[in-house]
Automatic annotation (TrEMBL):
<protein>
    <recommendedName>
        <fullName>Tropinone reductase I</fullName>
    </recommendedName>
</protein>
<dbReference type="InterPro" id="IPR002347">
    <property type="entry name" value="SDR_fam"/>
</dbReference>
<dbReference type="GO" id="GO:0016491">
    <property type="term" value="F:oxidoreductase activity"/>
</dbReference>
<comment type="similarity">
    <text>Belongs to the short-chain dehydrogenases/reductases (SDR) family. SDR65C subfamily.</text>
</comment>
<keyword id="KW-0521">NADP</keyword>
<dbReference type="InterPro" id="IPR045000">
    <property type="entry name" value="TR"/>
</dbReference>
<keyword id="KW-0560">Oxidoreductase</keyword>
<dbReference type="Pfam" id="PF00106">
    <property type="entry name" value="adh_short"/>
</dbReference>
<dbReference type="InterPro" id="IPR036291">
    <property type="entry name" value="NAD(P)-bd_dom_sf"/>
</dbReference>
């Protein structure tokens, strides 16, 4: 463990940085929270499940990580706004890093998706990403430094059966990433997307967030 910490210290330092990671109690988001916290970033994360979030926060506290958390269903605009108010308060009106990780998969045949299904997927996977970027913008400006990482998917550029709505939402994430990267570069805000393949987490089996 000491060798790992020494390697991180020699490689780079993120001490003093602040970050918001959505959907950080499980899966990819959980790993991102731990990686950032391991580099001494002050991290705030969110989950829809209070019990699950509390368990994670206790685990991170035991590891000496500086992580706080809030309950938030990112598919709801008012909850996103409340979360960002909390983040702004904790980090004194400034933010350095935003990781838009929370997403909903919901595998179904294309003809089986209801209007409610599509609305839920798009509000979780795309609308929340766009909105969190908008809400974070003034905090990045106050920091004079912003880094946004949107978690997309390799399925956004290929066709995979039974996840057509999910793929469409991730394609939209790719596009807004490019637009914001161009528009906000002048403000020292870099916007990128990562498109991983299938990651074996507990969320894959449940068809929930990935």
């Amino acid at each position: 463990m000491a060798d790992v910490l020494n390697f991180k210290e020699k490689r780079w330092s993120l001490k003093g940085m602040t970050a918001l990671v959505t959907g950080g109690s499980r899966g990819i988001g959980h790993a991102i929270v731990e990686e950032l916290a391991g580099f001494e970033v002050a991290v705030h994360t969110c989950s829809r499940n209070q019990t699950e979030l509390d368990q994670c926060l206790q685990e991170w506290k035991n590891k000496g990580f500086k992580v706080t958390g809030s309950v938030c269903d990112v598919s709801h605009r008012d909850q996103r706004e409340k979360l960002m108010e909390t983040v702004s308060s904790i980090f004194h009106g400034k933010l350095n890093i935003l990781v838009n990780n929370a997403a909903k998969r919901m595998p179904k045949a294309a003809v089986e998706y209801t209007a409610e299904d599509i609305s839920r997927i798009m509000s979780t996977n795309f609308e929340s990403v766009f909105h969190f970027c908008q809400l974070s913008y003034p905090l990045f400006k106050a920091s004079r430094y912003g880094r946004i990482v949107n978690i997309s998917s390799n399925s956004s550029v290929v066709a995979i059966p039974s996840v057509s709505a999910y793929e469409a939402s991730k394609g939209a994430v790719n596009q807004i990433t490019k637009n914001l990267a161009c528009e906000w570069a002048k403000d020292n805000i870099l916007v990128n997307a990562i498109s991983p393949g299938l990651i074996r987490t507990s969320l894959i089996e449940s068809g929930k967030q990935v």
